[in-house]
Amino acid sequence: MRKAFITLTALALLAGACQQNSQTTSNTNDSTGDGKVAKIEVPVPVFQADSAYAYTARQVAFGPRIPNTPAQEKCASWLISSFRNWADTVYVQRTTVTGPKGEKLPCINIIASFNPAAKQRVLLLAHWDTRPWADEDAFDKTKKLDGADDGASGVAVLMEVARQFRKQKPDAGVDILLVDVEDYGAKSDENSFCLGTQYWAKNPHIPGYKANYGILLDMVGGRGTQFYMEGSSKQYAGAQMKMFWDVANKLGYSDLFRYENNGAFITDDHIAVNTIANIPTFDIIALQANNDFAPHWHTTNDNMDVIDRKTLQAVGQTLLQVIYTQPFSY
């Protein structure tokens, strides 16, 4: 992905910023200028983990979704076709971005909108591409990887959520953003990651697009996964993140959604959404208590063997609960 951890000194400074920001984001206004919406009493669809698991496997079956490969085009076509069956409107951004070595990379961002007329909106996003090499692998750092968790799992959860939206439309406006060329970056340059998101943040699918807040899903299907409250997410969208964690814990997923501070600050797609698009966005990402990534991160072990339906269920059901009953109650 490329996600870099900041130094302890910078971490301490940002921790202070987090505390200040969480106080300011808990007021009655949001990024659209509208007030909060009360909790809604409606039946919440049941997230189908088997469906999300199948969507994960289908992406993996295309092969590594690396920019400038046949798998990229084939998977993109399938994703676009699938979302056109569910969404009110689907936008496709095709552009070319520049990789860390100056290489020109085709980039395909896909945006699916639900309730497009609704002023109050939630942005849900995940990256769908695969890192071209397993550079964290212990044996062969040049091998390709499946990206079952890092990429496919987040997309799969959003696909199942979209399928449920089609069956029972939520009151809130929702936009699902699948971003490309997230994982092509070089460790020496944080800005070389998240290129599709950087492009979208500067060139949104609708000029002047705004959402109340965003939720990024990244590595949300691994067995034994835990989700800690990542530092930059707390800084920019602390109230929204706490709302999500509170709902997850009330649903019985306290073993996954942890309140402890593990000290991690990560460069991920949410950074560009926060700093360029100015939409408060938090990251749901697999982390360990020692602030490291899951052991299969950027290795050949990131395959279907690590995908757990229970993890997909926890993330997906919490997401549905938030969207249908209290999307703006933070």
Automatic annotation (TrEMBL):
PANTHER family of this UniProt entry? GLUTAMINYL-PEPTIDE CYCLOTRANSFERASE (PTHR12283), GLUTAMINYL-PEPTIDE CYCLOTRANSFERASE-RELATED (PTHR12283:SF6)
Q: Any idea which GO molecular function terms this record carries?
A: glutaminyl-peptide cyclotransferase activity; zinc ion binding
Could you tell me the keywords of this UniProt record?
A: Acyltransferase, Signal, Transferase
| Taxonomic superkingdom | Bacteria
What species is given as this protein's source? Chitinophaga arvensicola
Q: What is this protein called?
A: Peptidase family M28
Please give the Pfam families that the UniProt record associates with this protein.
Peptidase_M28
Per the database record, which ranges form the Peptidase M28 domain? 109-322
Q: Where is the signal peptide?
A: 1-22
Fetch the Gene3D superfamilies from UniProt.
Zn peptidases
